[in-house]
Amino acid sequence: MAAFLEQARTARPLDGVVVVSIEQALAAPLCTSRLAEMGARVIKIERAEGDFARGYDDAANGQSSYFVWTNRGKESLVIDFKQPDDAALLHRILGEADVFVQNLAPGALARAGFDGASLRERYPRLITCDITGYGTQGEASKLKAYDLLVQCESGLAGISGAPEAYGRIGVSICDIGAGMNAAIGVLSALALRERTGQGSGVSVSLFDGAADWMTIPYLHELYGQGAPTRQGLKHPSIAPYGAFTTKDRRDIVISVQNEREWQQFCAAFLQRPDAAQDARFASNTERVRNRAALDSLIAGVFAELNTDETLVRLSAANTAYGQVRSVAEMSTHPALRTWPMRVGDAELHMVAPPVRAPWDQGHFDRAPALGEHSASLRAEFAVSEAGATV
């Protein structure tokens, strides 16, 4: 009974699932790393020079921060699938696989005979996932799709930043979004296969993900009064909702979401209950319309208080707030969770997975060296004298 309970505690939802991925950079590797965290066996196919993300930087104890984040717990197999023997090896592996993920340029795998439709015809239970920049049809599909470029093309950069300058979202958010959407697609296809017995093809693009996030500004532009302008650390349609600077030069963002919160804020933080009755600030619509006067009133109080005094008053007013922290300050945040991961000869404290689950290991498996598993995988999927996979 104890052994059964221990097995139940450690079982992961994708135990036994085999994922093959021809991947590079960020979106596809992030997708498959999430699948690996759920228990999948992920076989990463690399060219002789390796995933170019291996060379992005050396911040993680001499290794690429991008690579160690998105390739934990995978196996690395170096092949050239354009060569007949390696193509045959890849087919033998795919014959045993459940999922195939790829994010090469549109058409690259089709020319080699490994496009999703052909693979699903040959292996009916296989799930294929294609990750592209702009889809596979139309003029836009030919565009190169690096993250910042997609931020620009999708309009995301157009509403980010301060009024005087566009701003890039500070992480590769379009790549990350595509990777997460791909993981959702793969999990959905696995669930469907449980009912039908058949694999299916799913696809995501960086642009589709960014466009989905742009739905609110899109609707405002087409059917409202126009898309929001760049506001920096201010909300375009709620006030007060933005950053104010304390006497000791600390920026704190506050958010007041309704009239009850506004009245509490006026009484306990501003210590001006009468401000709640000011016709200019009587509703969110009026506060947004009179934002300059509102911000001036609030900024004056912030300027008289140091950070500790400000936080005490905000707490007394039950006002939501967030301190604008540096990455160094984020690294010591009381809410931050980390897991250890071996990288070279050191143990790094990596940010823990965002999904907390019963199957959490409490540590990360290491990322593979280039071709680390080539010999063992070639042996595992070798052809016997009788012509069958060993």
UniProtKB/TrEMBL annotation:
The keyword Endoplasmic reticulum does not apply. The keyword Transferase applies. Pfam families: CoA_transf_3 (PF02515). This is CaiB/BaiF CoA-transferase family protein. Keywords: Transferase. The lineage of its organism: Bacteria, Pseudomonadati, Pseudomonadota, Betaproteobacteria, Burkholderiales. InterPro entries: CoA-transferase_III_domain, CoA-Trfase_fam_III, CoA-Trfase_III_dom3_sf, CoA-Trfase_III_dom_1_sf.
